[in-house]
From TrEMBL:
The lineage of its organism: Eukaryota, Metazoa, Ecdysozoa, Arthropoda, Crustacea. It comes from Evadne anonyx. This is Pre-mRNA-processing factor 19. One of its GO terms (molecular function) is ubiquitin protein ligase activity. The gene is EOG090X0489. Keywords: DNA damage, DNA repair, mRNA processing, mRNA splicing, Nucleus, Repeat, Spliceosome, Transferase, Ubl conjugation pathway, WD repeat. It comes from the Eukaryota.
Amino acid sequence: MKFPNTLWYLHHALYQHDAACRVIARLHKEVSTAREALSTLKPHTGYAAVAAPTLAASAEAGGVAAQPVEAAGLTPEIISQLQDKATILTQDRKRRGKTMPEGLATSEAVKSYKTLASHPGLHSASNPGILTMDVHAADPSHILTGGNDRCATVFNKDTEQVVAVLKGHTKKVTKALYHPEEEVAITASPDSTIRVWNITNSSQSAIIRAHDGPVTGLSLHATGEYVLSTSLDQHWAFSDIRVGRLLTKVADADNVPLTTAQFHPDGLIFGHSGPIAALSFSENGYYLATAAEDSCVKLWDLRKLKNFKTIQLEEGYQVKDLCFDQSGTYLALAGTDVRIYLCKQWETLKTFNDHTAAAMGVRFGN
């Protein structure tokens, strides 16, 4: 009787051992895949991948269901897509070299710029204030704004008509992106959601619940398929805008809120923790402009990781947004006023004082 019992226990132990080995192998493979995905995104500082909290999917305004927030992960296909796009963009930039685009405005022309029009009334008069803006790269006459009234508005400056009013956020709209090739808008809010909109019919196409706190930064990947977001919840996230799905979510190693982030022109991630108000990459991918709460703009050479220029502004000056033009010749600053600088010489070419409050965003047209 003892021999059959011993044989059974031995068989059972071997079965458990085999099952445990299979589980360990599977987990090891998943960890390796996650590490490879994070290394592909190349964050600037150390981060740790975390599991997103579980929230039930829910239906929201317009009948759009929010996707579950469990991170789906970066598949080999997505990683390959990011790498291929980075290679194409890098080669394209090297091919252009230092050739200036045709029709680039001269510094003398910039000095003569003046305000052509002012468009009040794009947002609610009872809760006024525009907090963010972006311009459609394919059609610069279309301007996207987000406001205190919890709405995003698309405005045609040529016809002076409102094209769409995008309603759905439960708190103010603090970040807004206009897809460069499509009639698609992406917005973010302290309500912790990122929303993707079809501008043509003013409807929500996706709600991304990637964060547990106010969303502070948005950047669209060069593929036009993915969005990078940052939040006061101390995480940055990478999401698919087509299906509204969180792909990966990463915690800051220093456990501090993340206030802004932007993709490198080649599609690699650069994020900045701490009280950074704005950042912008030069199109050549070598230079980065940053602004914080110390009333100065710092210019960085990413090849040397060195701060090579600091523009000291007036005491108490608030910087809200920065933007290099497509050629990397000019840098625009929005905040207490709006200024345009000539790069390399860092000369102030033009200052606009038309706003009665801080300017929250600035962009160059074609």
